[in-house]
Fold:
Amino acid sequence: MIKITINGKRIKAKKGDTVLKIAERAGIRIPTLCYHKDLSPFGGCRLCIVEIKGRKAPLTACTLYAEDGMEIKTNTPRLRKLRRFTLQLILSEHPNACLICEREKDCANFQECIKKSAVTFGCKSCPQNDNCELQDMVRELGVKDIPFDFRYRGLEVERHDPFFDRDYNLCILCGRCIRVCQEIRNANTLQFQHRGPETLVGTAFDLPHLEADCQFCGACVDFCPTGALRDRFSRYDKPPDKAVKTTCMLCSIGCQIDLNVSGEKITCSTPHRSQLCVRGRFGIAPILNHPKRITAPLMKKGDTLVEVEWVEALDFVAGKLHEHRKRTGILLTSQLTNETIDKIYSFADILGMKIAAQMDSTHLPVPLKIDKIKGSVAFIIVNIDMVSDYSVLLLKLRKKFKKNAAFIIIDAAAGKTSRYADAVLNPVPGTENDVLHALTGSRKIKKQTGIQATEIEAAKSLTAGRKIFVLYEPPNSPTLKVPKPARALPLHSQCNMLKFTELGFDATQEQILTDKSIDCLYVIGAAPNLTRKYQTVIVQDCFLPDFDLDVFLPAATFAEMNGSVYCIEGNMKKVRRVALPAGKAMSDDKIIDTLASATNVRLKKRIQKRRPKKTKKIVFQKITKEYPLTLIIRQNAYRYRNKTLSTILKGFDRLRGDRHIWLNEKTAAKYKLKKNAEVRLTGRRGTFTAPVKISPFIRDGAVLIYYNQSNKDIAFGPVRLECIKS
Amino acid sequence: MKKIENILKQHDHRKERIIQILNDIQKIHNYLPKDVLQYVSRRLKLPLSEIYSIATFYAAFSLKPRGKHLVTVCMGTACHVRGAPAVLNRLEDRLGVTSGSTTQDNQFTLKTVNCLGACALAPIVVVDEEYHGQTSVNKVDRLLKTYEKEKN
Structure:
């Protein structure tokens, strides 16, 4: 413990704290721009200068470590003058017309239009107007004029990447984006370039962010104190009126988010004392406000879907469900609240309907108990691209274990995660099990895995003396068995799948679809591939599905209802209603309530536990002359209800390319394929046609696709490839 | 890449020696090629953005191919006063390039620096690490001729 004096106030502090932190805790205001409480001190903006008794020159408080007996002044006339001068210098390179304009308030009425101008020349044309730290600082320090010539750097606004725009003419080089990218996200996409007056923030070789390992987590956008980085979706909206804390339902992790509401529109989602991935940061608002969202009930009359009143649609549905009763199958997504799922189960119990969860195996997910993992550990990641599917979980693990953890990847299509791993093993697809056994046990590595014994030894040395945990996703690695003493940590990709573990389900989606006794389908958020005709197909969702249907009931999104969900660690998180349902949409639980009363069913609290029949085990077949390539299918974790994000949002399509067929350069060269060549894959069960993308991460001879509606015919295993259009 | 791997080995694959490593790479290639930097980034587990940042920070590194001879004109205060701008102008005229670029035959790259710390010799021109002090427009002509002769 040490004691220092700030502005005559004696304050106790810990040794090793900076003066800025101590002052902040004591409620003493020191102006800052480049400082952020979650980041390391930088000392770039020079606004936090303070005077220390006994020293001539003022020093920056953010980099000044407190010493016992220090006497500090934070707000003398000299400091105020210096700060103003520094800020004037900063502003001489930042569009400042509005900041020093005496008629600043008069033009507020015209802001809406001015904001859309191509070039930001002042605050009124800046998307961050009234939400800008630089603006606040000018007001706080009372800068009224700028004695220097204004230097506009004339840099082109970078708009070629999805999700956010970058106008570095507004950048004040505080380095917050760089530090958050480095220290918190470990992505290292951004860095300072050049020096002196030419200094810029950018990626290596000025590559587009898409090619520079950017995860598009949006942390840089949230940390930027100016309007240099801006969310493209919300850039024309007014600053938010309120922010409501809720849980993101786009994946299983259950990150806490703030949904910002401006007027009646949800403009964007920002992290609530947490980190987010691209889905949570840039996916939510565009989905909720999507132009293709259906917000009124539709019914088939003749050959077309016609908008009808709720009463008519619900009467029809209630009648049909009553008529078909035990011959109805419910296809259910897990992206619903617990309360809704309870009601659906209870409704199904009474009417005798069968429930299929949208899962591809009968493997029920289990909670991931991270808190129980302690000590020095090695994580073996099998067939998961952690960076794109579980980036927040990976950050959590890296933060918790720091240097006490080794990350080893076993994956034929290792993806972006390779950069973060200590060792990467790229086996022949289907042999992951053998590699895992060689790595954790004493079994020798088999030749057919394509992995050298030296590689295994090198990876094995990383696990020495550590507890081994194997992270995998059962649908991605259907043949995997985790040998002892390694412990299995199965992951599940979709939100609230643990609810299905609690309640069980009758059958998998495929079992329901092949069950001939079923003649009515009630699809709630699922995306089935219908191969035969049904008497009635009822869909309850936000977007129209690709198949033929009789009734469409518009459902509310998760921002439009109250409830709770299980997150990946097994604890409950709250989902809050942030806005009223769009148009005539109704929340799922309310629809079920109304249906229940229309069919004279009283929903009960007690729900029968259901047990699905086991599905057949998938066995990897060997490649043959006829089928020389091996197909890998990955779960598409980027979906909301019946749509994958890439089919409804262009940015996700560019980022993920999950409608494409992915191969290695060598394989592409063998078949003389160029990027975007149209290709047909033929397996023993079916075919799939899509354009090609080339990735260095995929093993030679392997072909990767993501699980979509359109490719459900084709299965894991050997395939043949033909080029249709080059 | 074998040569590059050798350089990395000499420096024990240590990240903190990146500036020395880049220096050694530049000695071989005359500049820092993109694919080499990508390789170094992978091998040292050092983010490419960081390497790029270092490579653009120091005036000594070049990301574009350089000519056979590097001509550096000092534009520091002392050199400036004693006629460096005229020397630079003359060089630009003779070589037909502006400062910072390379002649079409890849023989010369012209560059300026802000001070070499040898102000007593002002104005100073450095060709391939050879210092030529108290130069003038005429001396520069002669200097270029000797290097051009070398080529023939």
Remarks:
- Strands of chain B lie at 69-74, 108-113, 125-127, 130-132.
- The helical segments of chain B are 2-10, 18-29, 34-44, 48-57, 77-81, 84-95, 137-151.
